[in-house]
Structure formats: C-alpha cells, structure tokens
Amino acid sequence: MRRLPRALLLLQLLLLVATGTPEAPVSAPWSLVWGPGLQADVVLPVRYFYLQAVGSDGQNLTGSPPGQTLFKVIIKSLSPKELVRIHVSKPLDRNDGTFLMRYRMYESVNEGLKIEVLYGDEHVAQSPYILKGPVYHEYCECPEEDPQAWQKTLSCPTKEPQIEKDFLSFPSINLQQMLNEVPKRFGDERGAIVHYTILNNHIYRRSLGKYTDFKMFSDEILLSLARKVLLPDVEFYINVGDWPLEHRKVNETPGPIPLISWCGSLDSRDVILPTYDITHSTLEAMRGVTNDLLSIQGNTGPSWINKTEKAFFRGRDSREERLQLVQLSRENPQLLDAGITGYFFFQEKEKELGKAKLMGFFDFFKYKYQVNVDGTVAAYRYPYLMLGDSLVLKQDSPYYEHFYTALTPWIHYVPIKRNLSDLLEKVKWAKENDEEAKKIAKEGQLTARDLLQPHRLYCYYYRVLQKYAERQSSKPEIRDGMELVPQPGDNTSLCQCLLKKPLREDL
C-alpha cells in the first residue's frame, strides 16, 4: 500500500491538534472512484465521475478533508500524436466526504484517454484510468446502432414509474387522429406546439403558433440524442408552453391524445419530459451556465450547523401565494426571509410589499430551510433546491415534474399546505427537531443526486420516444411544412466514427 507523503501527514496532524477532530487523514489508495466519466462509450456533453474520500483507518470521510482540497484530475490523450482540447474543472467538494469531477471534451480521440486522479502527488484508488478509444466528444455524430446496448452502457433503469403511468392512457396512438385534432385544438396563433418527425435518425419539425421559441431546447436534446444512439422512427407533438394541455379523460369520446409537455398536472394527460430548464442545464453545463445540476452540488453554502435558521424564498410574483410569503415574512422575520425580485402579474403590489434585490442562487443555501412555491406551474427551481443541503419545504401542488414520483413527503421534503397556512408551524417544527430536519434534507439531496444525473436525462428522453414509437398505429411521415433540423457543424475537430459494424456474410 502506498504511504501518504510525510508533509501531508504532518499537515493533517497539525489540523487534528488544532480542531480536535478525530477524522483520520485521507488515504489515497483506499479512497473510491467511480462513475460514467470513466467509460469511453458513455458520451455526454460533460463527462463526470465521483470520488469518496476514505481515511487511513478505512472509514469513509463524512465531511470535507481538513485543509485545502488536495484532489486533482489530469486528463491526457493516450497518443502523443493526438492533441485534444479538454476542459477539466476543479473537483467539486460536496461537503460530505465525496467529490464530483467534471470534464468537457472539444475533440474526439482515436487512441483513448488517460485519467489521473491524484491526492497531492499520490494516485487515488485505481488511478490512472485508461479509456481505450475511440472516445467521442459531444458534437461527434456517431450513433450506437443497438439501442439496447446503448441503454445498458448508460445503466438506464429498467422502469421509469412516471413514463409507465403516462402511457397507461395510450395503449395505441392514432397518428391520423392527432394530425386532424392537434392543429384545430392547439394550433391557433397563441399556440406553443411543435410537430416533430424522427425518420432515419434525422429530426424534422414544423411550428404551430407563434409562441414556439422554446423549441430550441427540444431541438437541441433530440439532436444530441440522435448523435449518440439510433432513434426509433416516431412522430409526435411537443407543447413548449408552460401549462399541460390535454385535459380530456380516458373514458371520454374522443379520448385524450398524447401531447408531450415539460410539466404535468393531476387533471391532465400529457406525457411528461424533463423540463426545458433541466434539459438546458444538462446540455450547457460548464459553458457559462452557473446554475447547472452538477455545479450546484459543490456550492451548497455553509455546513448545516452554520446555516441561518430561517426559511428562505426569492422569486418573481408569478403566484399569489408568493405575495403571501412576503407578508408572512414581514410579520415573522425571525422565522422567514421572503422577497419578490420582479413584478409582472401583480405590479400594483410592488409599492406595498417592496422589491428584493437579486441574489446569486448559491447564496440561497446560507439558509437552513428553503420554501418551494409554484410559479405559473411547478417551480422549476425545485430540482436545484433538492440538490442543496438545506431542508425543502414544498407547497402542495397539482403540478409535477418527471422525477416527483420517486419523492415521498417527510422522507425527502417537508410538505406545506397549498394556502401556506401551516408554513410557520413547519418551520418551527424543523427548528425544534433539528436532527430529523437534517436527515430529511440529506435523504432528499441523495435521491436528487441519483435521479438528476445527466445520463439519466438521456435515458428518460429515449424511453419516452421508444414507448411512443411502440404504440403508433401507422408509420410516421415527413409532413408538408416540415423542415430538417440540422446537426450543428463541427468544423473545429474531425470526427471519424469507429463503431463496430455487424459482419455481413453477403459482402
């Protein structure tokens, strides 16, 4: 077994004497490293993997190692002849003994990559990790021709409860009925519907209505998927507006049609995809987007014991209960700090309630409790709040996102009534039951870390398309008015597909 450098041992010893902490020094060889970023054939916009720091006593560390973070990652091409641009971020300390390592490739490599994970100058776990090529970057159009193999490589779950539930209403999908109905019901000038056909792994679309700018998010994720795996031939409509649209019940005549939306509700039948916000976060991580689902995990504010013991909220005036929050905050400043940062729906209230200054999202986690109140629909900040290490107080809501089915009140979050009448009572409960509140916050965080991993988003999108295609009663077509959505140009780096092709005896 490798030994820790003497200087590091002395540093750890001095820190232990100073703090009185019984935490053992980090053991590089005993620490653990795992994750999809260590697999060559898991192609993602940002590749990532995890590290669990283990002490020299063999126990997992449950907090940040003392002193400056000494973990680092070095990534190089296996071949000195292949120069490759890779942005490697500093390890994100998740404050519980684990670290998140991220890198974004801007070119592909044929020979492969060498990933060194170091603590000081010592290799961690099984470092160096060798990823045998080819290793493709995000804009490399080299789809895996076996979707089952692709899903297995990504460790996609065998079932997604929300998808199973959504498609119960649609044992068969009549494309002709949709072609007749959707433009009439939802395609007026105020519409936000985009009609897609995927054929031979190419994406075609036409817009219905003028509020379809958010198609840039659906375009981008569909193109990204098509670069990675052979998609089924499928034709569908996506609602890129806020509200779910299909409110007809299964026993009505005619029954509901399977519109696809970002958000669901208890009285609608839309098929749900991850929100445009989660999608954008996954695609644009490490490219100037600060509040992405990975970076948030290393910016969760002070440790639990040092957080301000108040419930916190900042946001726009997109629902009346948010105004109530501000009023409650004024009356109970010792329990709640709430403010409206922008007025649009209730502009007449600005003079009465005041306007709060904008705050960086990472600063939210200076507070021990986070209040999650709906916006126009489900508040799309919720997954980000879950990934922090504050306790989320979630308003009861008819709206839901794709991952809510995996969450349970009092295990992953503390529920509050829709009219907020019990909010102050729940904050008091949390203050009086600190250990239980901390436990719920941690359980919610761990579950969100699992559910909201970028590779899980790709699995989810693919499974929805697959389920949809299986139920189509006729073949999808490229309709009048549709245009090809082109793959982005990749002029900066050559990309040669070296996927293994099945042997054909007739060649």
TrEMBL record:
User: What GO MF annotations does this protein's record show?
Assistant: UDP-glucosyltransferase activity; UDP-xylosyltransferase activity
Q: Which SUPFAM superfamilies match?
A: E set domains
Question: What keywords appear on the UniProt entry?
Answer: Endoplasmic reticulum, Glycoprotein, Glycosyltransferase, Signal, Transferase
Tell me where the Filamin repeats sit in this chain: 23-133
Signal peptide segment: 1-20
Which pathway is this protein engaged in? Protein modification; protein glycosylation
Q: Name one GO cellular component term.
A: endomembrane system
What's one Pfam family here?
Answer: Filamin
* Domain spans labelled Glycosyl transferase CAP10: 230-475
- Name the reaction it catalyses: L-seryl-[EGF-like domain protein] + UDP-alpha-D-xylose = 3-O-(beta-D-xylosyl)-L-seryl-[EGF-like domain protein] + UDP + H(+); L-seryl-[EGF-like domain protein] + UDP-alpha-D-glucose = 3-O-(beta-D-glucosyl)-L-seryl-[EGF-like domain protein] + UDP + H(+)
Q: Does the keyword S-adenosyl-L-methionine apply?
A: no
Known role: Protein glucosyltransferase that catalyzes the transfer of glucose from UDP-glucose to a serine residue within the consensus sequence peptide C-X-N-T-X-G-S-F-X-C. Can also catalyze the transfer of xylose from UDP-xylose but less efficiently. Specifically targets extracellular EGF repeats of proteins such as NOTCH1, NOTCH3, FBN1, FBN2 and LTBP1. May regulate the transport of NOTCH1 and NOTCH3 to the plasma membrane and thereby the Notch signaling pathway.
Q: What's the family?
A: Belongs to the KDELC family.
**Record protein name field:** Protein O-glucosyltransferase 3
Q: Name the encoding gene, please.
A: POGLUT3
